[in-house]
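Record minuted for completeness.

…
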Amino acid sequence: MEHDIPWTLLEKQFTNQADAIETQKVNEWLASAEENGMILEQLQRYYQAYGSLPIEFVPDTKAALKKVTEKAAIKPKARLLPSVWWKVAAVLLVGLTSWWLMNDLHRKQAPAAMAELRADMSAINVVLSDGSHIWLNAHSSIKYPKKFTSTRNIYLDGEGYFEVAHDSSHPFVVHTAKTRTRVLGTKFNVRSYSSEKLVVVTVTEGKVGFGSTANRQVLLTPNQKGTFDRQTGSVVKMKNDNSNFIAWKTLEFYFDRQPLSRVLNTLAEAYHFSYKLESPNIKQRILTANFDKRPLAEIMQTISLSANVQVSLQNGTYYIK
């Protein structure tokens, strides 16, 4: 039952972004069917709880009818037929919701003060007003309210690791250009660089809802990751096969028979250096090693011995042959 719901207009209305013309269109939709008022109230409650509109929606007419009856304090002296109750409740709710929509234009609340941070050449740690922690990788930035009042919305460009303080009343939502990651309290990593084809979310603790802004969603649990393909729009859930996905934060590395090229890429992201393979045939040399917060010079010396290669540092670039 779709009822021709104007999804885009309702989302704008719920975020105080609808203009007078768009609000009028919502009012026209409300007046077009008695049950649309009930639908709007249910969608508003869902949006306040989860920060997005539902993927699938079936109106709960019983719950809406009960709520409207209680709001209007209707105490009938005589028993009304169900059809009469339906009409009375629908008319009252349409009127109440229309009044709320019109008055909402006149009670524009001051937007929450926003903070913006950028990590340039090294990772940084941020503590939010609710006690949540964010580790921001190099070449990444975030925007967030200095103080949360409802849904905890964070806007990320790049990569961040999140340890979210639990708050069942205020969902925590990480927005990227084309995805949303929604939690109540958990730990997870979001990687969303515009230069890369995939947005990747990897979970270490709790449950995470991940998907596109077009409402393609998957539920992720520990040791799972979700990917969003920027080109196709597909969202896929799978087991996490990358033990070093937060090595940029921890500086703890576990390489089990990994090609040398992958080892160097992982290290370069964490230690922020450049390298050049002077002999292409050594790309696939295999390395097994663990490094726990070791100096980069020591790691490169170990690689030189283990992979039987020569490593030299010139003008900030490692040359390997």
